[in-house]
UniProtKB/TrEMBL annotation:
Class of this enzyme: transferase
Protein name: Nucleoside diphosphate kinase
A Pfam family the protein falls into: NDK
PANTHER family: NUCLEOSIDE DIPHOSPHATE KINASE
Alphabetized UniProt keyword annotations: ATP-binding, Kinase, Magnesium, Metal-binding, Nucleotide metabolism, Nucleotide-binding, Transferase
Protein's GO biological process: CTP biosynthetic process; GTP biosynthetic process; UTP biosynthetic process
Length: 136
């Protein structure tokens, strides 16, 4: 059985030229990249993606960060619970506490700019893939 999840390489990852490094980590784990696109996110897409955060105090800063430059949106496919495998590879949200060997632990610097987003459940993955890649 295979499973898909959404991964976003955030503007800081693109700016720091870490796209190849992060993608190679997923490929080394034998996960497949089934869709990938460099894109500039607009306010509407971000509102749909972060709908649970609309109206919260940090929302405007989050939108400003995520729209300041391009992101790489990807659909990653692997065995059952791929979303969970990807989340473990990403590491803790705060790079200062992320374990060495994780993307954030090895490459992250700031809590507010933590390089990568990965869906947090199978249901979230399905919803988020529908936002970014509606034809999959």
């Amino acid at each position: 059985m295979s499973d898909r999840t959404l991964v976003l390489l955030k503007p800081d990852a693109v700016e720091r030229k870490l796209v190849g490094e992060v993608v190679s980590r997923f490929e080394a784990k034998n996960l497949d990249i089934v869709a990938m696109e460099l894109r500039q996110l607009d306010a509407d897409t971000l509102a749909r993606h972060y709908e649970e955060h609309v109206g919260k105090g940090f929302y405007d800063d989050l939108v400003a960060f995520m729209s300041r430059g391009p992101v790489v949106a990807m659909v990653v496919e692997g065995p059952e619970d791929t979303w969970e495998v990807v989340r473990k590879m990403m590491g803790a949200t705060n790079p200062r506490t992320a374990e060495p060997g994780t993307i954030r632990g090895d490459l992250g610097i700031l809590f507010t700019e933590n390089l990568v987003h990965g869906s947090d459940s199978l249901a979230s993955a399905e919803r988020e893939i529908g936002i970014f890649f509606p034809n999959l």
